[in-house]
Amino acid sequence: MFCPLAAIFAANTLGGFTPTELAAQQRTIQAARAHEEITIDGHPDEAVWKRAELHDDFVMRSPELGGAPPSRTTLRVAYDDLALYVLVEANMDPDEVVLRTLRRDAFAIFSDDAVSVKIDPRRDLRTALIFSTNASGTQLEIMSLDDGRVNMPQWDAVWDVEVWRHDRGYTVEYRLPFAILGVDAEGDGDMGLNISRDHQAANATYDWRLILPPRRPTSASAFGVIEGIHGILAARALEITPYVAGYTDFSPSFTVDPRRRPNASVGGDLRAQVGKSSYVEASVLTDFAQVEADEVQVARDRFPLFFPERRPFFINGLDTFNFGRPGEAQLFFSRRIGLRDGRAIPVAAGVKAYGRSPKLVYGVLNVQTLRSIAEPPQDETEDPEVDIPAENFSVGRIAWRPTPRTSVGVLALGKHRFGDPDEAVFSGGADLDITAAGGKLRWYNFFAQTFDREPDEVVETTPTSTLTRRSRSKLGRTAASNFTYDGLYLRPAVDFTWSDTRFSAPLGFYRRPGTASHGARFFVAPRPRALGLQELLIGPFGRVVTSPDYTERLTADGGARFEARWRSSWLASYNLRAKDDRVDDAFELYGYTVDARRYQGTSHAFRVRSPSRFALGGELNYEYGQLFAGKMHQIRGRIVAKFNKHASLAGSYTHLVGHLGRPEANAFSFGFANGTLNLALNRNVAWDTSLRLNLDPSEPTMAVQSRFRWRYRRGSDIFLVYTTSQPVGTALPDATIEPFHAIAVKATYYFQARLGG
């Protein structure tokens, strides 16, 4: 009897390579010592490039996994006392080079002809620094944590790259200072390395060491090795970046008091290498005026939304403090510092020390905020803000790594208000992280406790007095275990997260504390050759959430996923989900009350995405299903238009329509949008304008952030930022939305020196 599924599996020949053979392709390259100065211009004129070992055995990752690239790519590596140098030549028809962006830090680079140098500086098989450029030399750097599971494009580093365009294609020459890589000045200099090339005319991606799906492109455990680096200068880098800034919200006042939003301010950042792979960073009167605004998200449930960290000071060394499941169950979440309900809290100073030895990883963070003095209301209708007291935050982390794939660590953190011990909170925990099977298998576990205080409780109120029960301390506990296997064909996962009813994660992020959550999936990923397909992803998933004592079932949902990827890079997917959910406490959603009771229903979700290489592309999503007692339709469209290398537009709009039980009484229909227009005069001058539109009736607003950035010298910038937020549409009667305008200007100056050596 004919079995279609068996036929699909039988079709997987992978160009004559088995998955085991592909995964076993270890790559090692010797770095050549440079005895002369290397000029970064894209031209391989220096003698060291003639002596350097040349590799041209790149392998196609997409569309033909393990196939031979149609165009040659060569790699050479060199070093001197202070930096690592990488030379990549990409051969192709020069008339076919695709170049559509000049804007720094833009992911649109990966839709151009581009090269990415990926470094695992300490070969910990977990952390990678990614340096990407397109055929014009536009730069993008990314810090990748947790073997590619967490990527931080907000990380900023000072490095150099230039491109030479010629009749064979283009050549890319990198200079990556050891100071930003954190490489030991003595001892074993081996580092993890991978090179990826995006070749748009062939709709292809090539790797120096092949990264097997579903491994992420930034998975450090899939890198090759650079050998031969030794005897580099034992000098330590000192980086200082002072700033001056001006600000106005057009109110008739002027202040330099940092406890308010000052109209004029000065401050700065410092980073010093104090030992082998050990660093200290400090920031005084930290300013985040240039940080990109968060995108609009609208909740469809009663649980908190997760917004990623974007502030530079908190990103460097973030891998050291990583603890828990990002976006789901984190004991430490850096956005708890200096932000409260969207309001920025002034940071007086922060200091961070982090580093590692062959077996240990360690880090300490301390931040002192200032008292945030509330601005007086503009008129009698505006609700007054309240002052927020100064607070001190401390975090400590140490992890022992007996092998490169095993880590045992502890984390401790706390918040304290001087003179107010009742506001002190503490958390601490231990974790175990084990990877195997070349990084495809991961088992992560943690246990933690938190010490917090319950708020004061009003027990009785009379016309003459109020009886209040003082806050009481509470000790909460949490534990988690997560097992995943990301194989080429099989991708099972099982996870468990538990926390008791007294757990609150005051300095972390927990989506659903006080529950026991159990999830599982089993996806199968055949790779047929029929119909132009590259990969299918098929399988069930499910989750059950109970009370922490397992006496009550709170939520149960499950379903199936079907996804198809074509060799042309088109993608389509369908998800079916059934859900049984108990709401314990009534809550407000879109201006209506969702009652406390049990709800059941199903949902269907469809998705289609075009290839990113198109000058005009996008994505379309549609979902239909139950929303508590009612029905919901959600449609989301995203479009990316790359007009030329100087201008591009990316935006999305999501519209929700439905009701929460009775169409005639509690219907809703609204949308929200996120969009950005990018203009780049050249690689150093850019202007981007972002739109954030939220038509949720509880807070209908339109916000615009327009940022001009001029990198006037290496590592030094001038920013001009205009921000406005305006009420739009019809708000609920109790909504308070005040119009807002502000302009900020900020200038930084980057200074680097070497200590010793």
Helix content: under 10%
Quick one: overall form? globular
Helical stretch count? Answer: 5
Q: Please state the CA-atom Rg, rounded to the nearest Å.
A: 27 Å
Structural class: mainly beta
* Approximate strand percentage: over 45%
Specify the biggest β-sheet: 24 strands, antiparallel, barrel
Keywords:
single chain; 757 residues; mainly beta; Immunoglobulin-like; 24-stranded antiparallel barrel; 9-stranded mixed beta sheet; 3% helix; globular; disordered N terminus
Walk me through this protein's architecture.
With about 750 residues, the protein is mainly beta. Among the domains are: about 5-225, Immunoglobulin-like (Sandwich); about 265-285 and about 305-515, no CATH class. Helix content is about 5%, strand content about 50%. It has 5 helices and 48 strands. The protein has a 24-stranded antiparallel barrel. It is globular and about 90 Å long. Mean pLDDT is about 90; it is low at about 1-15.
Offer a quick outline of the entry:
With 757 residues, the protein is mostly beta strands. The chain contains 5 helices and 48 strands. The longest helix has 7 residues.
List the topology elements.
Layout: H1 4-10, H2 19-23, E1 28-30, E2 32-33, H3 47-51, E3 59-62, E4 73-79, E5 83-91, E6 114-120, E7 128-134, E8 139-145, E9 150-152, E10 160-166, E11 169-177, H4 178-181, E12 191-199, E13 204-207, E14 224-227, E15 236-248, E16 264-275, E17 278-286, H5 312-315, E18 324-325, E19 329-330, E20 339-340, E21 343-344, E22 347-356, E23 360-369, E24 392-403, E25 406-416, E26 425-436, E27 441-453, E28 457-461, E29 466-469, E30 473-485, E31 490-499, E32 509-510, E33 516-524, E34 533-546, E35 553-566, E36 571-582, E37 587-589, E38 592-594, E39 598-609, E40 616-627, E41 630-644, E42 647-659, E43 667-680, E44 685-694, E45 701-713, E46 716-727, E47 740-748, E48 751-755
Parallel strand pairs: 1-14, 2-4
Antiparallel strand pairs: 3-13, 4-5, 5-11, 6-7, 6-12, 7-8, 8-9, 10-11, 12-13, 12-14, 15-16, 15-47, 15-48, 16-17, 17-22, 18-19, 19-32, 20-21, 22-23, 23-24, 24-25, 25-26, 26-27, 27-30, 28-29, 30-31, 31-33, 33-34, 34-35, 35-36, 36-39, 37-38, 39-40, 40-41, 41-42, 42-43, 43-44, 44-45, 45-46, 46-47
